Amino acid sequence: MRQRLLGSGLLLAVLVGSVGCAAPRILGRATLVDENGGPGAAAPGVTLNFINLQGKIEDSIATVQTDAKGEYRSAELPPGKYTVEAVFPGYVIGSTTVVLQKHGAKKAPFALKKIREAKGRSVKESQDDNIPNPGEVKIKPPL
Fold first, then answer.
1. Distance CA 44, CA 65 (A)
2. 96: which DSSP letter?
3. What would the pLDDT profile of 43-66 be if each residue is shown by its tens digit?
4. CATH 3.40.1170.60 is the classification of domain 22-113
5. What is the pTM of this model?
6. Closest-CA residue to 113 (of 95, 89, 92)
7. In a designed cystine with 100, which of 24, 70, 137, 140 is the match (CB 3.0 to 4.6 A)?
């Protein structure tokens, strides 16, 4: 009987260890929205940086990329306070702060907004504002 109890205790310990508390991670989904904040589309290939604000600088940055659905999941991270940055070319960098405890995962979703492109100035506008075009710069010779 004693051996049977020890066996069930061992089985229980294995089950608790495998099902127990999740490792500390940061996870979420990134979407891309237009300049006006329209509906977001899944964003594959977004780079996410996890910066530990309480760790040594050389050990404080981890990076992952989103999958085809725009979802990401960090590697197991030590507990602490993190800045999470989402970076994608042509979009405003997203940033949030997350505090990780010893167990469990925290969600940090991102909706990255497209950078509004600046409109160029016409030649007429440049002349009106007295801004020379590169080919029109007149240099006077020294006297």
1. 8
2. E
3. 999 999 999 998 777 778 889 999
4. no
5. 0.65
6. 92
7. 24
